[in-house]
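To: structure desk
From: M.T.
Subject: fold request, one chain
Message: Could you run this one when you get a chance? Sequence is below, nothing fancy, just the single chain.
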Amino acid sequence: MAAADALATARAGESVLVVSIDQAHSLADVLDVPAPDDRSEAGPADIRSVEDNLEMTQIDAAELLRRRYSVLASMAALAGAHEHAEQFDLPEPEELTALPGVQELLVLSEVARLAETGRWAEIVVDTPASADALRTLAGPRTVSDYLERIWPQHSRVEATGGQDPRVAVLVAVFDRMLAGLTGIRDLLDDRRRSSAVLVASPDRAGHAELRRVRSWLALAGIRLGTVVINGVAPALSGTGAAARMLAAQRAAHETVVEEIRATVTEAPVIVYERRAVEPVGLAALGEFAATIRRDAPAREGQGDEPVRVQHESGTGVEAVYAMRMYLPLADPASLTLGRIGDDLIVGADGMRRRLRLASGLRRCDVSQAEFDGTDLVIRFVPDPAMWPQ
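Reply: Done. Structure tokens follow.
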């Protein structure tokens, strides 16, 4: 689907890069693009031309780590003249690769870097399966928030005033990591630039997973652009046993599709029938791409912000403020809510997000919370001890 969508956009006249961030890369196989004869000069994002307006890359996380690591090693070498320099040891790249989430953050940082070049009108990113994809997309925000809380900026600035050069190097490395994570987070948060396409199967399991993934995307603040139901049984005539079985499958699939259309109301739902032959290679993908372009919805604007704050009633310490968080399709029984200092911890369908409160709400107490079917509504009242009189 990612390859066909990219091909459709390219053949409509826009420059497109299709990127695989799945470590089990199959994008080149689907496009039927042969591997380069010489990999010795290839970089972590080896960009290859597929046809006019279309390029592709499969990001090599291990190579990307080696290249980024060499920069950190050079920074660490700045402390080499210090009498305790031998105590400033970096782990080996292979050790870092084994840490959970490292490769995912690296490949997302490379996608953000490619996006910032402005070389392409659109970048289509082929992600791993839904649960892994959501963990990957939630990673930059989670890690950057925790790093900033563990070592706030004012503390880092104070630390650089000391005499130990190792601390200055550590602060530089830390700041470089945060800048990279912030760039990824800002790209994903920009609802005018980024959106997700959910691809689901037309069965009960696919519908249940679609509901969970939709809830996770909303919790992460990522805009849903389109829902694709892929693999619906085709409508064929006939009276034999095979035709009856296929007709029964199609009826079951159509029932699920209608249920999805009824529940996903904020984004277009596109349906594609199962094909007799897998669309691999430019010729087969081109036929499929023409269908995608014909069915593709018009592009939408930014839409409503996922978190909104409004004044509901009263004035001064008698005021009531409401924070609304858009969580469509969330299971009400799975919702959790907590507060730590100036942050809210919101959970839905097994995923959690930490939200920094708006400055005014930090001086308020939570008075009530409810779920109205699409929004989690949290009401706040001023804390008299902290509210300006």
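Reply (cont.): The radius of gyration is 25 Å. Let me know if you need anything else for the meeting.
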